[in-house]
From TrEMBL:
Residues 215-311 form the Fe2OG dioxygenase domain. It comes from the Eukaryota. One of its GO terms (molecular function) is L-ascorbic acid binding. This is Fe2OG dioxygenase domain-containing protein. Residues 48-57 have a biased composition (Acidic residues). Residues 1-20, 38-57 are annotated as: Disordered. Coiled coil: none annotated. SUPFAM superfamilies: Clavaminate synthase-like. Gene3D superfamilies: B-lactam Antibiotic, Isopenicillin N Synthase, Chain. It comes from Carpinus fangiana. PANTHER family: OXOGLUTARATE/IRON-DEPENDENT DIOXYGENASE. Belongs to the iron/ascorbate-dependent oxidoreductase family. Keywords: Iron, Metal-binding, Oxidoreductase, Vitamin C.
Length: 366
């Protein structure tokens, strides 16, 4: 809802051509002879992009106490709603604490993801998928049929359509149920956050849920990412700067940093609080859809899990008539079915707000 980066002889060094046929970055990274990345993984940064990284931003990343939003007194809830609105407007990102999702469940989810990526190439090939919108799909980079430069990343994506299509890979054994439980709990957290965001916009609490037909239905994209150690992390990219499709994306990770947010012309490193959920606003909310990226390192494997939460596939998403009228403005985006936007996002160049810009209404149009 649119609202406002030991020497080997040259003879023994594998060639880029050999590596270009590698099915996953994990296998490439584990090669004992790898000392530099192949040319097709060398990411050229936009010269106009400000590469300053701020370790200590001028103000801290917003923290939202979920328990006060969901169960606090009217005054406490009112205060948190105001904080939530400012976080969405100024940052498009916040950390959620006291969210009620068991820490052990999060740990088991990460264990299962690690187990999946540790499967043999043959086992993982069962879930390769043929289409970017397949229910279950694993692979590398973002879209290898489209990417000119590969990203230092392997992924597992599962599209979950509530309430009926809730299928996960059956490997590793026993984790399908764990992943589903986690997604259902995240769905509950997201519902409460969307209520608070609605109220921060001066709308009734259930406005977004009703407008997007999310009271009993909705879509979640389970996106598990593996970023292995990279011998030249300054030349590679885990994922380039981009915004997400959907309304809210909820991220957890294995304690290894790598997520960076764009703010005031600088990149801000995210240092997650213990047992917190990282949340960014996404394109279909466009309160301020957050541009972020994943960088890599040469020492440790980073695992992250992003749960993208959106409306049902057939939902029509467009500017809120109430907000357009309230602000005496014209709609900034065309209406589009969420399934069509999802297809656009997954087949378009992953950079900045490329997909969102394609449905933006020009100021010249009257």
């Amino acid at each position: 809802m649119a609202a406002t980066t030991p020497l080997v002889s040259e003879a023994s060094r594998p060639s880029p051509t050999q590596f270009s046929k590698t099915t996953c970055v994990k296998k490439l990274a584990e090669s004992p002879s790898l000392t530099s990345i192949p040319a097709n993984y060398t990411f050229t940064k936009d010269p106009q992009e400000d590469e300053v990284v701020s370790e200590d931003p001028e103000e801290p990343i917003p923290v939202i106490d979920f328990s006060l939003l969901a169960y606090g007194t009217p005054d406490q809830r009112s205060t948190v709603i105001q904080e939530l609105g400012r976080a969405c407007k100024d940052w498009g990102f916040f950390m959620v604490i006291n969210h009620g999702v068991p820490e052990r469940l999060i740990e088991r989810v990460i264990e299962g993801i690690r187990g999946f990526f540790d499967l043999t190439e043959e086992e993982k090939r069962e879930f390769e998928g043929k289409n970017v919108l397949d229910t279950i799909r694993c692979g590398t980079s973002f879209n290898t049929s489209f990417d000119k430069v590969f990203f230092w990343r392997d992924f597992l994506k599962v599209i979950i359509q509530h309430p009926h299509h809730l299928h996960f890979p059956d490997k590793p054994a026993g984790f399908s149920e764990v992943w589903l439980e986690y997604c259902q709990r995240i769905r509950g957290v997201v519902r409460e956050l969307l209520k608070g965001i609605s109220e921060s916009l001066g709308l009734e609490a259930s406005y977004i849920l009703k407008a997007m037909n999310m009271e009993s239905a909705g879509l979640q994209s389970f996106v598990a990412n593996l970023y292995p150690p990279c011998p030249q992390p300054d030349l590679a990219m885990g994922l380039p700067p981009h915004s997400d499709h959907g309304l809210l994306t909820v991220v957890t990770q294995n304690g290894i940093g790598g997520l960076q947010l764009q703010r005031n012309g600088k990149w801000v490193n995210v240092h997650a609080l213990p047992n917190s959920l990282l949340v960014n606003t996404s394109d279909q909310l466009e309160y301020k859809s957050n541009v972020h990226r994943a960088v890599v390192n040469e020492k440790a494997t980073r695992i992250s899990l992003a749960i993208v939460n959106g409306p049902p596939l057939d939902a029509i998403v467009g500017p809120s008539p109430e907000l357009v009228k309230k602000e005496s403005s014209r709609p900034a985006y065309i209406e589009i079915k969420y399934k069509d936007y999802l297809g656009l996002h997954q087949t378009n160049k992953l950079y900045g707000k490329a997909s969102l810009d394609r449905i933006r209404i020009s100021n010249d149009v009257i």
